[in-house]
Amino acid sequence: MELPIHLSKTSREPVYHQIENQIKTLIASGQLAEGDMLPSIRALAKDLETSVITIRRAYQNLEYQGFIQTTQGKGTFVSEINHNMKQQMKVSEVYQAMEAAVEIAFTYDYTLAQLKEIFFEVISEKGRKQ
Amino acid sequence: MQKWKQAWQIAKFELSVSTRKIAFGCLIILGFFSYAISSFQQYLDNNVIGYDLFFILFFTLGINIGNPNYWHLKQADVYPLLMTQLPLPIQQEIVIKSRFIIHFCFSFPVQIAFLIIFYVASPIADLLSIPAYIAFAIIWLSVNLYIGTLTPISEVYPANWLFTVAMTFFFLFIFLFILTLSNLIFDHSVVKLSIIIAKNWPVISSMVSLIIGFAAVKAHQIYMKQIMNKRDYF
Amino acid sequence: MRALLTITDLEKQLDHLYLGPLDLTIAPGTITTLAGANGAGKSTLFKLIMNLAKRDKGSIQLLDIETNGTDESWKQHIAYQAQMIIGWEPFTGNKLKDFISSLYPHWDEAMFQKMVALFQIPLDQRFGKLSQGVQQKLHLALTLPRNTSLLLLDEPTSFLDIPAKQKLMDLLVEWMEQGDRAIFMASHQSADIMKLSDYIAVLKEGKLIGTFEKDALLHSHRRYWIKKHLPEESIPGVIDRFAHCLISNVPEKTEAFLQQEQITWTQQEVLNLEELLTLLIERR
Predict the structure, then answer these.
(1) DSSP output for B193-209
(2) Does the pLDDT of residue C251 top 80, yes or no?
(3) How close C268 comes to chain A (CA, Å)?
């Protein structure tokens, strides 16, 4: 597989949206640099086991938002992204991860106080390692 | 002619792997050769019906007479290689012509070889001059054109083994009927009759034979096309 | 865009099955898999398309040409791989290649050579001497390079080993990327369907249940695990239920009901393709 994209079987988020967001993350984190070629729609559909319709939709959205560019006959490439945008994406990704964690905690009926406790525990543990 | 040329290209593909089949067929045919030549005098004297039957079968089937697959009751009701060619971009007309060509390749060479050896080796040279013998040859080779060309049709005819048996008996019956009729009306059996005709009317008899022959080749192609367009290939 | 293959109101009476009425369209750029139980009529549908079996009613057009008409030029645009091939046994791979390539003006020799190398096909041996798997590889190598607009594949991977299946998928992806082409295939292999298909046409007892976009189909059903015992009454959208688990084909309705009844689910996920196809083929 060319791109480390993992589709969730449990998420209610549409597949094209998951792909779109994960490619954005890859760009924001620098794993995909400006000018890098993305796999063709058909090849990515094969790797991710989706239909080309889904991939096309994700690519179209990414292109519309200026993350990628398609050149007829050549392929799809990562566009130049400005620093602010990358920063924004990083922040929003951290937010999303936190939100997901909080949701899980709520399904297990944790209270706000317990949740905070866990949160600080994780931070101090990670902090010690670094 | 262009179409026959294209059909030849298709037929060549199959003929290239038919050497064994042809060799085996020729081996069987040798038996027929020796029988036809050695009992000719006896036939002339006694009108042996079996002799006529062998003659007709040989000029209808050629080496297929010795082809076990042909006599083996058909298992697949379509000739398998033909089946693989149908989805390919070959015009139906060309496919049909190629089946005819393959039949001719399995029949004409041995039939012509037989006619030559027969003239040299049997007492028939005493009865017919060379031009008359050519007419005799044309009469018999035309049999392949109008009855023999049913062979490629049988490759696509939707049939089961019961039908095949029934058809085989039917044709045997028809042949025997013709033989008997010939004996009753003309007081001569078929081969003898053909010798008399070739001797007395060499030009007319060869012309008529060829006209019927070529008309039959045309008609049989159309018939084969009709069958192919109606049937399912599973 | 103009459809490559258009089937309308197709009907055919068979010995044990009535096929149709059936409508189906294959657009360029798409891969469609025909799924269905054995004997549902998949191979027959392919034979009807190829005019090997004759339709009773309806129309089958390849690039606007009826496949049972006098114009036979459509055969140039479709490459059909039958499930079984009988009749090639005495020929070597080389002979078969020479014959078949001569019939297709756009034959892609480079692709053929590449497939021969990838699959390690011995071209100098008679077809009949090869194992079933190698026969299938050779058959594929003689089909893909024909460079037609449509590939009609009947169980193309049934005898292939695992590496060959992987290679074939890459080859088919490559084949698709060379133009406005389409693949229509019958397959029982869920990996083929998952990796290649855009659309899944489900055939049941001669009738087409539907042609579904793969991702839409996969997300149309969901499974929920419930902590408590489920109420006895019927739950909207639920098509199958067990003590702690239920399957819905209208997840929104089911979730709304569960929330209303204050039943929480601990986990939920989409079904896998095999479960889904089993549900589609066995139920209704």
Answers:
(1) HHHHHHHH-HHHHHHHH
(2) yes
(3) 6
Residue C91: closest CA among chain B residues belongs to which residue? B17
Instruction: Report how far residue C115's alpha carbon sits from residue C173's, in angstroms, rounded to the nearest whole number.
Output: 14
Rounded percentage of chain B residues whose pLDDT exceeds 90: 43
Mean pLDDT over C10-29 rounds to 94
Question: Which of A46, A55, A104 should be substituted to probe chain C, the one whose Cβ sees the most C Cβ atoms within 10 Å?
Answer: A46
Please, where in chain C does CATH 3.40.50.300 lie? 5-216
Hey, which residues does C13 pair with through a beta bridge? C18
User: What's chain C's average pLDDT?
Assistant: 93
**Which numeric CATH code is attached to A15-78?**
1.10.10.10
Distances, alpha carbon B177 to alpha carbons B48, B71, B173, in Å: 15, 22, 6
Q: What CATH architecture applies to the domain C5-216?
A: 3-Layer(aba) Sandwich (3.40)
The structural domains of chain A, with segments of one domain joined by +, span 15-78, 83-129
**Residue A130 contacts C, CB cutoff 8 Å:** no
Which residues have C-beta within 8 Å of that of residue B128, sequence separation ≥ 6?
B136, B195, B198, B199
In 10 A of CB A124, how many CB atoms?
9
Contacts of C99 (CB under 8 A, 6+ apart): B13, C91
Q: Give the pLDDT score at C186.
A: 96
Chain B residue closest in CA terms to C90 = B17
DSSP state of C126: B
The separation between CA C127 and the C-alpha centre of its own chain, rounded to angstroms, equals 26
Q: What is the DSSP letter of C108?
A: -
Nearest to A15 among C169, C215, C267 (CB): C215
C219 contacts A15? CB cut-off 8 A: yes
pLDDT tens digit sequence for A52-93: 999 999 999 999 999 999 988 889 999 988 778 778 878 888
State yes or no: pLDDT of C49 exceeds 90: yes
The nearest alpha carbon in chain C to A54 belongs to C215
Q: What is the pLDDT of residue B69?
A: 57
* B162: pLDDT strictly greater than 80: no
8 Å CB contact of B233 and C90: no
Taking only the tens place, the pLDDT of each residue in B85-143 is 999 999 999 999 999 999 999 899 999 999 999 999 888 988 999 999 999 999 999 99
The alpha helices in chain B, defined as continuous H runs, are 2-15, 19-38, 40-46, 49-61, 68-71, 80-85, 92-121, 124-127, 130-143, 150-154, 161-186, 190-200, 202-230
Domain that holds residue B70: 2-230
Place of tokens 């902590």: C227
What is the ipTM, given to two decimal places? 0.89
Res. C26: pLDDT tops 80:
yes
